[in-house]
Each structure stands twice: as C-alpha cells, then as structure tokens.
Amino acid sequence: MPGVLQQDGGAPLSFDASARRSAWAPDLEHATVGCGHFMAEGSPVEVVDARYGRC
Q1: Which of 11, 30, 39, 47 is in Cβ range 3.0-4.6 Å of 18 for a Cys bridge?
Q2: How many other C-beta atoms can be found within 10 angstroms of the C-beta atom of residue 21?
C-alpha cells in the first residue's frame, strides 16, 4: 500500500497526522524519518528503507 513519510525533526505537529489520514485511507502506511525538511538528503537510508518496506 502507498504510504506517507513524515519528518520527525523540527516543530512537532499539533495533531496526530497518522490518525487524521487514516480517516480517508484506513490501510495507509505511515512512517517517520528522524531528520529535517530535506528527508532524502538528511537520511537517505531511512527514506529508501521506508519506501521499499524495509523499516
């Protein structure tokens, strides 16, 4: 299933993004990457692993 990859660095969200998105897509996969705005540059291995289901 397609997924959402969200940054874990910076200011925290004021809501539960996974719960909010699951209202529209209950089988959506949600993962966070421990970096800032430029995820693929800051944590390339984590991004690739999340994309291909290896996390």
Answers
A1: 30
A2: 15
